[in-house]
Amino acid sequence: LNLRLQGGSIGWQELHPADAGHCLRSQLRRFTMLINSRIHNGSLPLASVQPRSTMGPPLCKPRSMQLRCATGHVAPIRTLRTQTELHRSGVCARIGLQRRRHASVVVRAAAAAPTKVAEKQYKLGGKFDLKVIVEDDGETQRVKLTTEHPGRPLLHWGVKGGLDYQGGWRLPGDEARPQGTVAYKSRALQTPFRDEDGQRVLEVVLTGDERSDSLVFVVKEGTTWYDKRGDNFEIPLKAAGEKEAAPREVPEPPAELCGIWAYIQWENQGCPNRSSQESDAEYQSAIKELRSYLAEGVSLDELWQVAKGQKKYADFKGQRGGQQQQSQEADIELDPELVGLKAYLLWEENGRPEGGDFSQQAREVLTAAVRSGKSIKEPKKEERKKEAPQEQQQQEQPPRPPPKQQEVTLGQTTGMRQRDVMSLIKQSAPLLSMEAYEEDDRPLAAAIEAAGREESCVWHRAYGLGSKAELLVAVRQPEGPDGPTTVQLTSDLATSAVLHWGVRRGTSRGEWLRPPDEVMPKGTDAPDGAEAVDTAFQTCTDTDCELPDFENVELQRLTLNFPAGAGLSGLIFVLRSEDNSAWWKDGGGNFTIPIPSSKEEEAATGELSELSRVIADFEKSDQMTLMHRFNKACDLLDQVQQGQMVGEGGLAEAMATIFVWLRYSSSRQLTWQRNYNTQPRILGEAQNRLTHAIAKAHANTDGVAQEWVRLMLSCVGRGGNAQQIRDEILNIMHRNHIPEKNGTWMEQWHQKLHNNTTPDDIGICEAYLAFLRGNGDNGAYWKVLDSHGITRDRMESFDRKITEEPQYFGDKKDALIHDFQNYLGIIKAVHEGADLQASASAAKDVSGAAKGYLGYVLSHAQDSQILPLIENAVECRTELAPCLSGNREMLYLDLALENVARGAAERGAGKATGAAAGPLVGPLLQNLALSTGDNEEVVYCLAEWLALPQSVLAGTRPSKEDALKAAAVVDRIRRALSHVSDNLSSVVEPISTGLGKAFGVAGWAVELFAEEVIRGGPAFALSLVLGPLEKGLRAAAELGAWQLISPRDAVGRVLVVDGLHEIQDEVYEEPTVILAQRVTGEEEVPEGAVAVLTPDAPDVLSHVSVRARNMKVLFAICHDPDELAKVAEYKDKTLSFKVTAAGGVEWEEGDSAAASSGDHSEKAPKRKIEVEVPKWCGKWVVGMDAYAEGVVGAKSKNIAGLRGKLPDSIALPASVTVPFGSFEEALKDKANKDVAKRLEEAVKAIPSTAAEPKLAECREIVMEVTVPEKLQTQLKAEMEMAGIPLPSSDQRWEQALTALKGVWASMYNERAMLSMRKVGIDFRDIRMAVLVQRIVPAAYAFVIHTVNPTNGDEGEIYADLVAGLGESIVSGMVPGTSLSFTARKDALDDPKVVTYPSKSEGMFVPESLIFRSDSNGEDLAGYAGAGLYDSITLETSTLKKVQYNTDRIMTDEAFQRQVLSTVVKAGAAIEKALGSAQDIEGVIDSEGNLTVVQTRPQM
User: Fold this and answer.
1) Which of 808, 1098, 1342, 1417 could staple 1361 via S-S, CB 3.0–4.6 A?
2) 860 is catalytic
3) pLDDT category of residue 105 using cuts at 50, 70 and 90
């Protein structure tokens, strides 16, 4: 373009370039151009540019256009042929044009035919190809990338070369970024591939100044990164020989190194408290510094040496920066006056330290300002402004609005380190020997035990006195509370002790009262006017003081007698040595002993454990501060570790008790100060002592006990130099010339801090900072106080009251904000142990790997992107885990990081909905595993989750199959969360309830205690994510909210219960819809129920499911908590339920009259089922050839009936049976005469309701039966003939007979009695045959219904399969879903999975024998009696964790299809052989052989 001045306008012409061999091709359109140009002392803004005429064909002759100036300024212009030449010309420097990569006007030469520069093929993870083709026409570079990866890959990329290239990865501008591109931490671009004809395609176009030398990239899919063996892929963009000279290649610093570098910088600055903005700026500063070192030629290896601590950061920085800094500063001349001014302002900002010299720091700040592009004059102006009176400046400027909160987003994953997650399982190997609880070596142990048994002893406690010495206090009232009271004190102290004591009247916590003269023992030292007296202990000569096992221990005792009607409520005392050289107190305070005046008083704490009673009594002391409480807690920790006061709940319960106590304290439910002042120094020492004791206890425990110990630290500040709290407030006041004037807010707070600092001071300090930042805004002050739960009444209740409003010092605002920000850090370091910055500052042994993650967390703690923050916090915790045991500072840091992860999850709750929440599950599960003492199941869930397809882990759109797999894992995770929360609640709730009542805590605080502990933990954070995720997965899997087990329409009154087992024996007179939170699969459906709805997930083929279908009851699982909650709102009202064609359930409010009439509910016909009572066949044992009607039950007959009718691929187990009547015949044996009589009487006494106690008695009697010798002989003979191996020893044979009797005894169980009562069967008519089979070692077990029970489709088979025994499916003992599948009978090779397995455990048993129930009350026409009686194995079956993510049935699709097809083919063959629909059970061994163990007609 040739630009020339034309009066008040600028004209332009398009010219044919002299150095080009072709005409310009350009279709000029309408455009706008703005050039910011500085000419000497001003700027030249140019107005819009419009073409004078429409452009025609490719131009070969000049065109002209005018650019009208907004001002009269004119710039000297010369002809520039291309935009690249514009940048390279000297014009930019002469007229001060700002360089721009993207201009609106670009004149291009005619494009040559594109040339293929490169074509390469890369492997992504060894599975998928990535094809890259580069073309260049001399003006435009085109890069086309194609892959067949099935997921949603992203290109993580940058370029090398191009305009202003400075090394490393350059990020092209917006015009060169394909659609959907986002910047990744200003270090790379991420662009999604698009779908095109079944492939993933992406094209990058670089034109003009964006033309580059090479494309550098990796590919990311979900949490998986594909690269070149740890390095980046790189492909040239220019042909050989064409590449322009470029700066030396500079590698991009790895993310982990950036995090460590940021941490080192922060650590090197003394770990200052910083805002989130300052932290982020520091993180970016670390990246910038690393890039500069790399550009200077420093190798990555050398930088890693610094990061790993092999070189000191300060030494490295000094070596690299000395000469460079001098040379750079030499180039800049600074005004000495300006340096002095800046130094003075810095001195003021830092609190005006005496002798402080800030001149060098001032030079560095000003030099940096000039280097950033400011002139020498600009910083001078800025500093002059700062010098102006601040008060005037503040009056002129309105308060700055608070910074706008960034919207919380999921953010981009930084990836989780691959590791063996199973190594996260915490092994339980107690370091505290259980012998400590069994063999007590305490001299007072026998006396303590005796006091606990003695009826007249109404109260007793054992107190630790240090050095393993103890004091036992026993209060006795042999004539009851209205009679005399004796207080006996016994100690094993090695030195002579003196009781320094007084008494208490009433319930008030007042001062000590002088004991009445008549109760003082002889020899008491009672000075006139003294409120306390001294009584010496005497050597104990009583019989119970004789200690034959402790030769060198001599007990001393003191007895105080209080007459009836003395009106005393307690005894107050401390102990001292006779020579006054030592004093013993209770946690730094007084011992307080109650004298019960009524049974009600003792009953108030009667349900508490011994440890809880000790704590409750301690809290009644008339003097109390945090110091006393912390000292007492320290003592109790030591005692429980020695086995003292450890009850039936073990060490874990004892540790939980101390946690509950400390938690009540930290939440202000217990007083922090009563009638006693504690200097900060002394409080800090108590905190320090307790927190170190907690850390020691953490090292001495494991598992659940260790989990409670760790949580104790969350209730106690670190302590340490608490004296600094007292000193620094005075320093701040003196430094800022604030007078110590009574009646002012600052002086009142100073006096409170001086007298008794508490965690309230954190909230007060934060409130005052908000007040200052708001230019004296009292509303901001009270808002912050309210967020900390600090009310005006509380402020006025302090021993040193705070009644005034804070003062605003406008001229000191900035200095005070600086000072109190630092002061807040001091307070938090003492009172708030889990503060992130304080914890990171105190933790000095952070490993190299953890530093990178910690550096990121410190810089992004309040970041709006939650996923990378959670990932880094959890990874840091994982790296720290091996260092936690007994390390106080690491434990505090671990708690702080857990809080960061939990807080981020709570902030982001609802931001990632549906399947998009998938990326959060893995990190939050790992976070939970790190926090949970018994974490085995959580870790198994984590392993299952991480094995899911990338579409689930990355939060993209999973396929139906992927969503089905994920839904099963989510079901398992939900149960693990329930287990964690239920266990926590079951331990905490009784303790918190008992202690809360004893402390007099408000009812609402007691009621919510356990819930608040759960909600404040990592399990709750994970639960927030699972809700929306599960909905999204079920939608993707096309599952819907309802799962039908027994599809029926129903109308009935809604009854809400916790568990179906609670009401299984009820009989309802009106149709009832039962909403049960828990259904295991083993229960009975109550008579009168027309529907059972539950959020639980019993198997479709479990016993309760079969019975529901048999009774024609609607049985449905609801996977939507909101939907089920709506149903629950209609409790005691009538609802109508209809099954939809799509397999869902619709409901509406119904008519109670219609429900009673039964018009809308299909019910099972109520008719009495007759059973024939079979007679004994005369044989004790029969083989399969003798199985006949009336001799054996349906199980035996059906197995025998299949012989010769099945393909060879289906095996049948060898079997023999003890026939009907054998048990009754055995009772006639002389050896069983007494047993038979007792059983007859017990059976007659069985009531119609609440029968279980009597039935249990019947079972116990049956187990006393002597098995006749003839039965034993025939059983051995028949087993040998059938090829069933006999037990290998007499002991094993006795075990077999016990199993046989166990099956007989199962006739007497409540579930069977209730079930038979519904159909009119008298349980006394039941006769039990026992089928004996060899157990086939099962890799998998299955249950088949040859007619789909969920929809009644006779053309479809339904089956369940699990690892281990089939009892996991039918019994309800193992919750969770099986691998459920269907197959059309005309397409048995094409089974379809309905649900994937979610069971946590499988039932396994070694190869042995099984004794199966085979009664005349099972498998009757119209009655499904399956599962009512026991089948017992010779070897005890065990529950073992199952890991389906490594099971071939889940990892090998071909194997899965083969197994499922084999199962349904067996079902079809058995149905054909027997001529009716069948309910079949069988197993598959490790070699794939299938055995059918029983079959019955399907009900």
Assistant:
1) 1342
2) no
3) very low
